[in-house]
Give the backbone structure.
Amino acid sequence: MKKLSLIVAACAFLVAGCNTVRGIGQDIERGGEAIQKAVK
C-alpha cells in the first residue's frame, strides 16, 4: 500500500511540473518507467 501511495504521489508531482506538451510526454514516460521499476 505504501508503494502505491508513493507512486501516485510521484506521478502527481511529475504531472504538476509539466510546462509543455513535449514535457508532458516525457513526464508520462518517466512515470511509466518508475512504475515498471517499482513492480519488479
